[in-house]
Amino acid sequence: MKKTLYVLIFLYALAARSGQPWKLSLTCPEEKVDLVVDLYEESVEVPSMEDFGPMNGYLGGNIYGVWYVTSFRIEDARTATIKLANDLGSENQRVQLTQLCDTLWQMKFMGTNVVRRVSGKKLVKVPDTYLMKRKR
Q1: Domain ranges within the chain, ordered by starting residue
Q2: Per residue in 70-101, pLDDT tens?
Q3: Which of 40, 53, 110, 115 is the most exposed place for a label (fewest CB within 10 A)?
């Protein structure tokens, strides 16, 4: 009986996850960058931007400022294009998010990469591509 219950719970969790593949909390532990998105509804509280209410997601961590989702397009079951803006709204960046397998995504900056991080006392470019893992 217990085994059946555990199997049912596992299958329910698996079905719930596959039902909304674009509701993600991803991280790149090597670069300390996080991407949180919900491309179905505005349900994500963006750190330091709580006054604006829930949004579709953000990019944060070891980068300069917080970049929030302004628009997106789901290309197919494994690819989405997301447009981000910095916390001041003065710059924007398009990224392509591609699912490589169940636990691994590739985030690639499209066009000129304007996202920076602080290194010493200088702003330096971040890598153009990140391998992101699902947060646990």
Answers
A1: 21-134
A2: 999 999 999 999 999 998 888 999 999 999 99
A3: 53
